[in-house]
Amino acid sequence: MIELPILNSEGKQVDVLKIDEAVLGGEIRHALLKQAYVVTHGNQRQGSARTKSRGSVEGSTRKLYKQKGTGNARVGASRVPNRKGGGVTFAKTRTREDFRTTLTKKMRRLANRNALLAKLVDNEVKCFDTLAFGEPSTKAFAGILGKVGVDRTCLVAVANGNRNAMLSARNIEGVDVRRIEQLNAFDLLNHRYLVVDRASLASFIDGSCYPATEKKAD
């Protein structure tokens, strides 16, 4: 059983949240996390890389100067691949290359929870009793992060309706904001710390933050 400290806005511990490792996969599954990371990373590729062949490069096709008598090496047109500004020998001309792969819904959800387990084991989760703000304030949010020792990249996960917290955190350097139902293994592994409030974390663990159609995956 993992005991996660619950902090207030001053960075002081006010409670403890007990989390069963079995709910998050029991142990850190490195192969699954790697697979989830690679799938998400590949799905972000646009597949629209293009290069121009010598026939696509703008320029004349005439021979630059006569074959003999100049004392220079013989040359042809200016658009050949071995000249600066020329075309590419084997140009990429496909309309769009698809790099998308998929995970099953159960694998994806397990990978997300297992990435959270890895953060909990490394003491990289900062859980607050609440992240409520009367109005957006970047300075106030940055002050909270400083009080709990967040000095590296940070992922902030909040409930969908907590707009003031989203606006407060989004302009801080090295901080990214996600709704709690968007939390995934790729983002968790790409940030050193996770900052979340108690209610949002509980909804992520028990699956209540997901739409009814998603809950059937469990």
In whole angstroms, the N-to-C terminal distance is 21 Å
Let me know the average pLDDT.
Answer: 90
Note the overall shape: elongated
Number of helices: 7
Task: Tag the structure with descriptive keywords.
elongated; single chain; 218 residues; 2 domains; 6 strands; Ribosomal Protein L4, Chain: A; 7 helices
Description:
- By secondary structure, this protein is of the alpha/beta class.
- It has 2 domains: 2-45 and 101-215, Ribosomal protein L4/L1 (Ribosomal Protein L4, Chain: A, 3-Layer(aba) Sandwich), CATH 3.40.1370; 47-98, no CATH class.
- 30% of the residues lie in helices and 15% in strands.
- It has 7 helices and 6 strands, in the order E-E-H-H-E-H-E-H-E-H-E-H-H.
- It has helices spanning 30-43, 105-121, 138-147, 163-169, 185-189, 198-206, 212-215; strands at residues 2-7, 13-19, 125-128, 154-158, 175-179, 193-197.
- It has a 6-stranded mixed sheet with strand order 2-1-3-6-4-5.
- Strand 4, helix 4 and strand 5 form a beta-alpha-beta unit.
- Helix 3 packs across helix 4.
- The longest helix has 17 residues, at 105-121.
